[in-house]
Amino acid sequence: MSMFFAPALRSRSYSPALRGFDRGFERFLNDAFFTPAYSSVKFTQDDAAYTATLDLPGVARDELVVNIEGAVVSIETAAAAKRQFKGSYELPEEIDAESATAKLENGVLVLVLPKAKPVSKARKIEVR
User: Fold this and answer.
1) Residue 9, SS3?
2) CA torsion angle 92 96 99 103 (round to 10)
3) Bridge-based pairing state of the strands 86-90 and 101-105
4) pLDDT: is 72 or 122 the higher one?
5) Taking residues 22-35, what's their average pLDDT?
6) How many CB atoms lie within 10 A of CB 111?
7) Residue 106, exposed/middle/buried by CB under 10 A (0-12, 13-18, 19+)?
């Protein structure tokens, strides 16, 4: 007798509460297993942007990759980097990725992450 296991498929209508739990658990795994003891991250915000400050001593600019997708910021070092780091952080609001900046100086990475301005998708249609 053979058994067949189908993967669980999730659609975009998947429960937001469970999706939030999944992201929270992913952040926990990232922090627990991939974040070395030498790094610490601090987030601050004002009306226009979030600022993330991350200690990454011994890491060079060309070894870092920063990705922004929606409200999630992912930071990781290249595989060849002497010091490894990998972390993802979900912010409460979406980020304007086009306006975001990253600066690494004296082992400190500073990300300025402007909050995305809400765009109305409302459309006026003609009544006939």
Assistant:
1) coil
2) 40
3) unpaired
4) 72
5) 51
6) 23
7) exposed
